[in-house]
Design goal:
Blueprint lengths: L2 E6 L5 E5 L4 E4 L2 E4 L3 H12 L5 E2 H11 L10 H18 L6 E4 L3 E4 L3 E3 H31 L2 E3 L4 E4 L3 H22 L5 H18 L5 E2 L3 H24 L3
Antiparallel strand pairs: 1-2, 1-8, 2-3, 3-4, 5-7, 6-7, 9-10, 10-11
Helix pairs in contact: 1-2, 1-3, 2-3, 4-5, 4-7, 5-6, 6-7
Length: 245
């Protein structure tokens, strides 16, 4: 992998380390990393070989990369602080100032605000999987409605009274989908979009447990409206999901 990229989950900013050229890129800027110890330290953070780089790890990196330097007899914590300061300066030159986080008394790590782009692709697959499941639920609901009896009460309302197992199974699947979305997208700045998605999924849920009521509709018209309205709701769910980062 010649280039390793991270994306900030709050700002959508990208930062990329070009491994072959030893160049850091972000916000239209590029910075050649001259100091070999700084490059190796940043490489460790970008490849996430360990969740934490300890003071002793950084001390070893610096000593391995430099045959001599004026701080070689200093404690690892002092060396680590110095070279993390240099690494942060390189990042700041490409307008990234929150990538490295201090773990007090232990060392440093990459901030959880920054998500590896490969991980982001896996999350995109997770998003698509949830949408496929909602689409499958809707298709199953429509298929059931095509064969189910349409009941009309004395007031003229028409509705489907499904068997309990079908309604409960649709509820379980909808509930799982919603909480999968909630778990995946719970992050600062997403609250309004999540509430919007919840509203759309709630409407789909009401159709999935057959709480949709028609007024003075024939069985044919009820089924037609039920299908069309669910397809509209599916488009709205997809639009709501697209707003989530």
């Amino acid at each position: 992998m010649s280039q390793i990229s991270f994306k900030n989950v709050e700002t959508a900013k990208l930062v990329t380390l070009d491994v072959n050229l030893k160049i850091l890129k972000s916000s239209g800027r590029e910075m050649f990393i001259q100091d070999s110890a700084v490059y190796v330290l940043l490489h460790h953070l970008f490849t996430q070989k360990a969740s934490l780089i300890s003071y002793s790890d950084i001390g070893s990196i610096v000593r391995d990369q430099k045959s001599t330097f004026h701080m070689e007899d200093s404690p690892d914590s002092i060396i680590a602080n110095k070279y993390v300061f240099k690494s942060r300066a390189v990042l700041k030159n490409v307008l990234v100032d929150d990538f490295i986080v201090t773990v007090r008394g232990l060392g440093y790590k990459a901030s959880s605000k920054w998500l590896p782009v490969l991980e982001e692709k896996r999350d995109e697959q997770s998003k698509n999987s949830c949408l496929k499941e909602i689409t499958a639920i809707i298709e199953d609901c429509i298929a059931y409605s095509e064969s189910a009896d349409i009941t009309q009460d004395k007031s003229g309302f028409s509705f489907i009274k499904p068997d309990q197992e079908t309604a409960l199974e649709h509820f379980r699947r909808m509930n799982d989908c919603y909480h999968a979305f909630l778990s995946r997208y719970s992050a600062p700045g997403n609250s309004i979009e999540l509430l919007e998605l919840r509203e759309k999924i709630t409407k789909v849920l009401l159709y999935a447990i057959y709480w949709r009521v028609g007024d003075s509709l024939t069985a044919e018209k009820f089924r037609s409206d039920y299908k069309n309205e669910l397809q509209v709701l599916l488009r709205q769910v997809k639009q709501a999901v697209d707003l989530l980062d």
